Amino acid sequence: SMLVRYDDPSLRAVVRGRLVQLINCRVIEGGAMVDKHVWFRDGLILDSARVEEKRAADVQVDCCGLILSPGFIDIQINGGFGFNFSTWPEDAEAYENGVAMVSKRLLEHGITSYAPTVITSSPETYKNVVPHFRRRDGDVNGAGILGAHVEGPFISVAKKGAHPERFVRGTLEPSADDEIDDVYGDTNNISLVTIAPELPGALQAISTLRARGITVSLGHSSAGLEQG
């Protein structure tokens, strides 16, 4: 079989479609760090006991003693490393640079994809920042972006937590669709919305958001069990 290092620039092309054995790596198993080979093909991890009995690897990848871990997925992160996704700097380039910086730093901590999260804000803020959260795959320059997570502004004032009360909207009536468009603008880059389902008009809003392919999460809510 072919032997390549984990940091070989040709690695991605070399392993495509082949049976791969990751060697000289450590994994967490049963609460302990153990030395173990890991097998995969086309992105799927295989049962090493069954594979090793049948055939040799097409490619062996030397991990040089490093820890092998799943990539973490963060679906609620409001910023990091001095940059806040909910603060618009009046400069599109500065904001884009901030997002790129956070993506790069998150990757250093094992996060391979994330949903930049914006708390309850003014419509102007949503409309300025959401266009910068287009979905993109991760690469050597940083973690991938899964689309925006917008928390609010359709939440319960009683459960607002750190969200600024002046921007909280306690209803989605008379038209939930109009409210969504008026507040967020273009929703194409939004993947997740946190909403309080007990608000007037919220059920219609949830239907609209789902029809647009957006996941809806209950949060900052005073809903009882039945409403939930």
Automatic annotation (TrEMBL):
Transmembrane segments: none annotated. InterPro entries: Amidohydro-rel, Metal-dep_hydrolase_composite, Metal_Hydrolase. PANTHER family: N-ACETYLGLUCOSAMINE-6-PHOSPHATE DEACETYLASE (PTHR11113:SF14). GO terms for molecular function: N-acetylglucosamine-6-phosphate deacetylase activity. Signal peptide: none annotated. This is Amidohydrolase-related domain-containing protein. It comes from Pristionchus entomophagus. GO terms for biological process: N-acetylglucosamine catabolic process.
